[in-house]
Amino acid sequence: MSDLLEELLEARRAGRPCALATVAATTGSVPRHPGARMLVHADGSISGTIGGGKFESLVIAEALECLRQRQPVLKTWPLREDKPDSFGAICGGEVTVLIEPHVPAQSMFLVGGGHCAQAIAKLAAECGFHVTAADDRDDVLSQCAAAHVRLTVPAPECIGARDWNASEAVVIVSRHYDIDREALAAALRKGGMGYVGMIGSRRKVLQVYDRLKADGFTAAQLAGVHAPLGLDIGADSPAEIAVSVVAEVLMVLRGKPGTPLRLAP
To answer: How far is CA 226 from CA 1, 198, 203, 212, in A?
Structure first.
């Protein structure tokens, strides 16, 4: 397997969006021939090349738009001056490029690796989420087998270092009040994710909120947190809690009301 395709697979495993641009067809004089590939990352950086120059910069721009639209594109660029859409290239031919966006499905970042996190990770992965779990206990985290990525880095550090988007959820289900509070503070500071939820009793949630307010967080910021997280289905076991949590995350990320689908007779 080529290094470029290995890099693509690694990006997919890590949940990093990228687009693969492949020269699909050519006519006349061109810088690269069919099969040449370039990987375009969400920050505009690239690996590989399909010809360089102005032509390549136009393909990069098109690839970034494909990532935003989440749709593949097959497009032809003229590399000669006699075309109305020419951009000044004088090679003499034409290049058709297939651009395929590789955008991870909805993502879930789990703070914690215990029984509830393991059950949530399993169900979320089965529902198509790209799941990352963070816990400082290697032995516990190793049991969270359904997570695509497992991290022993402190959760606040992971949350603060990542650029979030509206298709991502932060689900805080760690073993300790302080870990949950610090992770929630990091999520509120960073922002950008479509869902933030924290497990716990009503008493615990209010205590966390009081501490965060004392640290300068506003009621408006806290109002966006789903805590205690999950839908009220009387969940008790880790598996039932997972159903409650994943259902709420899907409801929020997809903008649905979560009402029953039953029809009146």
So the answer is: 44, 6, 14, 15
